[in-house]
Design goal:
With about 200 residues, the protein is mostly helical. The chain folds into 2 domains: about 100 residues, no CATH class; about 60 residues, Helix Hairpins. About 60% of the residues lie in helices and about 5% in strands. A 3-stranded antiparallel beta sheet has the order 1-3-2. A hairpin with a 2-residue loop joins strand 2 and strand 3. Helix 2 packs across helix 3 and helix 7 runs antiparallel to helix 8. The termini are far apart. The relative contact order is 0.08.
Length: about 200
């Protein structure tokens, strides 16, 4: 079945170099191209993502061999095809989203998929080493946090700094943002070892 979102997604992809599934979903929603698909919020989200991923994989096949639509780790980019680029033969994720029977997945199956995703996501992250107390205290001072701060305080401060330095903001600074993100992960790791 031909996905009705293919043309609209293709037009959006032409307007900027990189997209993510959630930014595409938001844009499609703002344009009125996609509305509420299910009364249950988790099924609505699942169906919206399913339609977008299905459209992306159909579009990927349509664009070959002249162009390559890369769909990896929530990052979607359209480029001219490299001499030897082609759609991978084995791609379980593509196969899943191109199978329309998966669109009507039950709430229990969706919960299972989400649990599996978050367990794999947590397993993929490299554990941060806890900071020594001197470095930890210097970092807290630099972040304008007290020694008695909680994980919630660190998260709140991270969000403030991220909003200020995110590369998409006018005041953004890519290198500073990366540095702050690394410091945030270190502070979280140190905080969790202190809390335990």
């Amino acid at each position: 079945m031909l996905n009705p979102l293919i043309d609209e997604i293709f037009e959006l992809i032409l307007t900027q170099d990189t997209w993510m599934v959630h930014t595409l979903a938001l844009k499609l929603q703002q344009q009125g191209s996609i509305g509420t698909l299910d009364a249950q919020p988790e099924r609505d989200l699942f169906k919206r993502n399913f339609l977008i991923m299905n459209a992306l994989y159909q579009l990927q096949q349509q664009l070959q061999p002249a162009q390559h639509l890369a769909i990896a780790s929530l990052r979607i980019t359209l480029t001219d095809a490299a001499p030897h680029s082609s759609v991978q033969h084995l791609d379980p994720l593509r196969d899943y989203y191109l199978d329309w029977q998966n669109y009507e997945t039950s709430s229990d199956e969706i919960k299972g998929l989400l649990n599996d995703f978050w367990q794999r996501f947590a397993g993929d992250k490299k554990p941060q080493q806890a900071l020594d107390s001197k470095t930890h205290n210097k970092l807290l001072q630099r972040w304008q946090l007290t020694k008695q701060c909680s994980l919630k305080d660190i998260q709140k401060r991270w969000r403030q700094l991220a909003m200020q330095y995110h590369p998409d903001k006018e005041t953004g600074d890519t290198e500073k943002f990366k540095e702050l993100k690394n410091e945030y992960e270190q502070l979280k790791a140190s905080c969790s070892t202190v809390d335990n």
